[in-house]
């Protein structure tokens, strides 16, 4: 297994923050800060030297129209996913009382997969405008962000879900199904490693001489002019294009994993699997929101003391 983080002192999170910074319209104010002799009040982020680059990047993200647009989409998409989950759970729990035909079950499975594809289609369209937001998405809660692997869920976790369903006798698979599932698992594992190697290569690229040169220009030059524009344009475009490739490659592995698993299961097994998979996804969303709200309440209480 190749490590995701190479032996460099450059933090990936800081590099993302730096890229947000150099592509921000506020950059000129940071390169050419107001004179200390000016009487006007300087921008808030210039009055506190302890503000980190990452914190400033977070402030930019919250006001980013691309973030706002996708956050609204994600909230609506998650709401529809909850409705779909209720349908899956109802069919799963009433399998003996209300018998569904294979065609009806397959239609329900298709509804789920179409909804999932809508997420990736929208994500890819927006990522072309700003891919960085998907590597640390502000619309996710801290618990969800902690589970991220290359902008989403890690494909191999699906096979742990399948094993848990088998142990609980929710999925009773034939010997042939289990053999093919194991083959798919090994194939997906190799696909994951391929994506991780590409991400490692991108991290190395972000830490190369041109990015270091760009960092020096943004921190020292007050009249960088065309030199900075030229270096920034080439370096940032290359990095963003590379990260977009990583994101799309990881999403393709996710979709390939879901399709591979569903192709091996019967329609009823697919309903049970999707119900468990979506339940896990939504639980992280709900638990994370609850913990975040509790933390906010405690923080506000402490500030009032």
From TrEMBL:
InterPro entries, A to Z: Seed_Dev/Stress_Resp_Reg, TGA_domain
Keywords: Coiled coil, Signal
Coiled coil: 174-201
Signal peptide boundaries: 1-24
Lineage: superkingdom: Eukaryota
Domain named DOG1: residues: 67-294
Membrane spanning residue stretches: none
Biological process annotations from GO: DNA-templated transcription
GO-annotated molecular function: sequence-specific DNA binding
Keyword Coiled coil: yes
Protein name as it appears in the record: DOG1 domain-containing protein
Source organism per UniProt: Phaseolus vulgaris
